[in-house]
Amino acid sequence: MSSSSAADAPAAADAVEVENCRDVLRVFSDGSIHRTTGPSFTVPVEDDGSIEWDDATFASDLGLRLRLYRPRHRLPTDPGKLPIFYYFHGGGYCIGSRTWPNFHNCCLRLAACLRSVIVSPDYRLAPENRLPAALDDSLTSILWLRAQALSGDPNPLLSDADFSRVYISGDSAGGSIAHHLAVRFSSDEGRSELEPLLVRGYVLLMPFFGGTQRSKSEEYCPSDAFLNLELNDRFWRLSLPVGSTADDPVSNPFGPGGPDLKAVRFDPMLVVVGGRDLLRDRAADYGERLKEWGKPVEVLDFEGQQHGFFTIEPRSEPADRLMSCIRRFMDKNGCGLD
């Protein structure tokens, strides 16, 4: 993650804190920005050694890296080549990293449960790098995979990967990234841009969508929720392009000036929402509207679950069910092919 000079300069003696994102990101009245190197909350890493993983650089000019995961031992039921599953982390476009234990644990589980190569990229964060920087970086990470496929000598953890079975997923802000990539790659031009990669489907995990008009789940979200309205609004203030509102198409898929989603040829998509998530209504409305327009979209509602439940408690029963649902979605959309 790159940072601006404002992030490196100490705050002036009379500067006061004006924005705080989980104590990981602090913005001061003089424009200075302080970031911690650690995560917003600490959880133990649950690595039993069954998954091998390593980091690779995908945008050297920006210092951006990604993490690759692969099952260490093959099972008799594994396909000849393993599918590739992208996971873009969350954090409101302002915080987060592939290295944070909660996201790392999630990817370890994804690799084990989906029997896939997991690709977990970082991207530039706001406010040092406002949107669409994160979207641009995420596209770059996909094109890095294309270059690996064309190289004839890919990263060792991609040596038995199936570049014709790619799935793109993301959690929260990462789910919003997956939406933008689904639109980008929906046209003939977008699909040819990816060749020889073939995207089989998208999985949006509690996507971080916004808008100027409050939804019911936003309006009635309790203040002690993991993602509450105050933090939600702060993330958008810090990440949106200067002068934009939350109806900007980078935030609101149906915002003015955005693509006509009714005309988009979406690939199969799974949209996951949580019953106690502030973002529930926007994500559910997104999925239901696409379904009404005849798009191959499934909406999966986890009643009673809060935002990011599968990274907070990756070994919980709801997280287990989610893994099974994602695997079923993959099997239904190209993963079961020989």
UniProtKB/TrEMBL annotation:
PROSITE patterns: LIPASE_GDXG_SER (PS01174). SUPFAM superfamilies: alpha/beta-Hydrolases. Residues 86-310 form the Alpha/beta hydrolase fold-3 domain. It comes from the Eukaryota. The active site is at residue 172. This is Carboxylesterase 15. It comes from Platanthera guangdongensis. The lineage of its organism: Eukaryota, Viridiplantae, Streptophyta, Embryophyta, Tracheophyta. The gene is CXE15.
